[in-house]
Amino acid sequence: xxxxxxxxxxxxxxxxxxxxxxxxxxxxxxxxxxxxxxxxxxxxxxxxxxxxxxxxxxxxxxxxxxxxxxxxxxxxxxxxxxxxxxxxxxxxxxxxxxxxxxxxxxxxxxxxxxxxxxxxxxxxxxxxxxxxxxxxxxxxxxxxxxxxxxxxxxxxxxxxxxxxxxxxxxxxxxxxxxxxxxxxxxxxxxxxxxxxxxxxxxxxxxxxxxxxxxxxxxxxxxxxxxxxxxxxxxxxxxxxxxxxxxxxxxxxxxxxxxxxxxxxxxxxxxxxxxxxxxxxxxxxxxxxxxxxxxxxxxxxx
Length: 301
What we know:
The chain is an alpha/beta fold and 301 residues long. It has 11 helices and 12 strands. It has helices spanning 3-15, 18-25, 29-43, 59-84, 99-104, 106-116, 129-137, 200-208, 221-229, 239-242, 274-290, and strands at residues 48-51, 54-57, 91-97, 120-126, 143-147, 155-169, 180-181, 189-193, 213-218, 234-238, 249-255, 259-266. The strands form 2 sheets. Strands 3, 4, 5, 6, 7, 8, 9, 10, 11 and 12 form a 10-stranded mixed beta sheet that branches. The chain has a two-stranded antiparallel ribbon with strand order 1-2. The two termini are 37 Å apart.
């Protein structure tokens, strides 16, 4: 079995473009067509349909794709296991995470990781909770850094508590700096994080029985901050999201206090590649320097 054929199939399924996948994987456009045609002949059915917008998977192709990704993941584990006998000199690691984690944590963590393992190629996938959980379960990502809520069925390593904060326009008349009463939300236009991207804010509203006066909903946290800054309403966002973006808004802790639990999710400890295991170790070593106030690490046993 030529694993490269299946790797090319999986990449085209993602890009939906022969030329783009060819550039990513070192093929010409005719070369991509030739390799996939050979694979289709071997399998006995077509994998893609050509449309004006690109290529789309056939029904058989969609059924085959998760198995192919698992095959590629298993092959990667074999290669990394061999590489681990040579001090992880090469390999590939795919990390899925929230954009806020990508901005605030990963630069320092990846800098430390790359100094120790310069031969490991890193791929980052940014998305919301549903995206990350799906990528992990489908073996598109080796692990994910996200909030614990809605990660049932995955192994979980807790890293820290991230406070949820009220975001208010600069000229908001509420003056107390000790905390923002959640009951006040029902009296103001509210900007809500879209469900599927974030579940922690929805959990707070559900737990407190608050029915917000929702005027806008967005998947983009930075867009929410900007809307608040332009006096379109108030919102609730995690502290890590707001960090470095809170110009022209007021930020107050919630009253009562709520937080989200951030950590690392993966399929199983036994299924982690050597590179993924080392990344988790480096993350646990590096993160206390980034979050000295409320970090609480739990070492993997």
